[in-house]
Give the backbone structure.
Amino acid sequence: MPDDEKDRIGKCAEEPASVEMDGQKVTQHRLKDQIEADKYLAAKETAKSKKLGVRLVKIVPPGAV
């Protein structure tokens, strides 16, 4: 995902949903929407990485041969 798209989504989630000037009314985005935007951006970043999401290892307790 291009950085400008990621920045745009993040900024939209941080900015108010609506603003009224003379009455000074500001409405934020719902917390659920902000969390979903954060999860979306994190998932996109994770999918882009080259690392494995799951690593399998064999655990051998000390003294066991």
User: Anything to note?
Assistant: The first strand starts at residue 18 and ends at 20. The CA atoms of residues 13 and 34 lie 6 Å apart. The chain has one domain: 3-48.
